[in-house]
Write a structure and sequence with these properties.
Helix content is 45%, strand content 25%. It has 7 helices and 7 strands, in the order αβααββαααββββα.
Length: 182
């Protein structure tokens, strides 16, 4: 099992929450579907084996993230990181400069898809974009083809509110994006 990849994803999600919502000394929780856990861990995760896997993962991360708790949800696990884990991420795992700028850009009214593309190109010459406006779900897929500075797939939507564009996004690990079938 690849506990490092799941831990990194969990830390990335905590960092994202800190950027978007600010840090406070509270527990923070995330839903992970069994399919995502299977991709991140490199093994099949199901309702039948999740208790053993989550116990092992909790032991693996305890010195950094504190005592994680887990609750079963439909088709997955609800993972709660205690305040000490959120604090650990704040103090030891800063978000990348790229992602910090990305969140700032996405939060700016009037930002465009061209602005997003330009930001990606400031961090790499190896950027892939796809027009996804016909999906009805989002307008553009963009990512770093070589996985540097990250390997997430960013699905960007443009909303026009009273003449002012606003961007929103979802980011996925590559395998989850492929599972969605866009």
């Amino acid at each position: 099992m690849n506990f490092k990849r799941l831990e990194k994803n969990l830390i990335d999600n905590i960092g994202e929450a800190h950027l978007k919502l600010g840090y406070d000394r509270r527990a923070i929780s995330f839903n992970y579907m069994y399919s995502s856990l299977s991709h991140l861990l490199g093994c099949e995760v199901s309702a039948e084996n999740s208790a053993r896997i989550t116990a092992d993962f909790a032991a693996y991360t305890a010195s950094r993230l504190g005592e994680l708790t887990f609750r079963s949800i439909k088709s997955g696990i609800f993972i709660t990181v205690p305040p000490v884990g959120s604090e650990y991420v704040r103090d030891n795992c800063p978000c990348s400069p790229f992602f910090t700028e990305f969140i700032k850009l996405i939060s700016t009214h009037g930002a465009s898809l061209d602005d997003v593309t330009a930001l990606f190109h400031r961090y790499s010459d190896n950027v892939q974009t796809e027009d996804k406006s016909l999906t009805g779900e989002f307008d553009m897929l963009i990512y770093f083809a070589d996985g540097i500075p990250d390997d997430y797939r960013y699905c960007i939507a443009v909303d026009d509110d009273f003449g002012c564009s606003h961007l929103s996004y979802h980011r996925f690990i590559p395998e989850d994006y492929l599972d969605l079938g866009f």
